[in-house]
Amino acid sequence: MNDSRIYADLDQLVRLEHRARGFSFLPRQPIHSILAGRHSSRLRGRGLNFEEIRGYLPGDDVRTMDWKVTARMRKPHVRVYTEERDRPILFLVDQRASMFFGSRRTMKSVAAAEAAALGAWKVLAAGDRVGALIFNDQEITSIKAHRSRGRVRQLLGAIVEKNQQLGKEPSPTAKPGMLNAALIQARKIAKHDHLICIISDFSGMDLDTKRLITLLNAHNDVMSLFIYDPLEAQLPDAGRLHMAESHLQLEIDTSEKKLRQQFASEFEERLELMKTLSRGRSIPFLPIETSHDVTRQIRDQLGAAIGQGRKAATKK
After folding, report:
1. What pTM did the predictor assign?
2. CATH superfamily membership of 10-40+86-315
């Protein structure tokens, strides 16, 4: 039986449905939510479909007044809209070799699987369609957006399948460019009005990554969940350590201050690059650490206060 800290378990991901509450991907957010900030408030939410033009009734919003028809008919008329039934959400879930790393609680790959499961169940509960692109160092699996429990289970099964391949023989060659390949495929799927949630450690991010995310964000909303391990942020002074990423083994002397500073500097550079990209393009940015419960972290950053959360969950 696989250790759930190292490999994702389908049954556990399915059970996360009952924990997918207290947060929302919709634009109307609690004041302390990361989506409520000035830089994050552009999330479009569901669109509106034109239904009909009818005579004005007391209580109608004057902003919906159709002035041309009003002038022609010499009586006030308004345009009636109905909210679109759903909004497609596309998850990009990273299961590359760089994600097969962890020092506390879980591997980054497992944390990414948990975040995707929570998001998928929440999206389904809100009545929206959910799809995904799940990628490793060899291929991208596409799950077409659909509004059903069966589709969510299919999505989670695909994540687990790729997750279970990590660290197994034969060891694949790491391909940082697969992140960009997934973004390119996302552009073909999400033409407009999607919410695209990228769940990754963003290893191999380059100028082309920024360009592709910018293009996606032009006609869609993009959200990034940055998965990282505490050792990446701050290497402890613990003498000689054996570290592994997939099948690569490395022995390092953590007592060397210069090495620890270099390690921290490289992480901070990648983190700052993501923050700058997010601020400049109004993209919500959620750092998710492997050492803490993923559900709690998502609730803290996207969720409501206790009372608001219960009210929001009831509405959903």
Report:
1. 0.77
2. von Willebrand factor, type A domain (3.40.50.410)
